[in-house]
Amino acid sequence: MKIFRTRYFPPKNFDAINVLGCLFAHPDVPLTSEIINHERIHTRQMTEMLVLPFYIWYVVEWLLRLTMKGRAYYNISFEREAYRNMHDLTYLRRRPPFAWVRYLCRKSKVHRR
Prior knowledge:
Blueprint lengths: L1 E4 L10 E4 L2 E4 L7 H16 L3 H14 L6 H4 L1 H9 L5 H4 L19
Helix pairs in contact: 1-4
């Protein structure tokens, strides 16, 4: 994963963001192995969805979850899978394809950064 340090992207309320498999982070944000693992999980999700459908699904699911209880961002299935497994640094070795689908309906607590 290519890492770019920039003051202007991502927005201030985010530590890092994965765009097309490249990680953008603010210069002062420590990139722990857990954060990098979280973003690698997103890269795997993007790859299996052929990139563009990933972004379309992400935005549609976020819009739908805006109407639900809780913060929409933390309830997106892609984020739920990534937060739930970011501390397991071996997760991607055994992760089944399309594992994020399990997080579509099931309510689970996530470990926030």
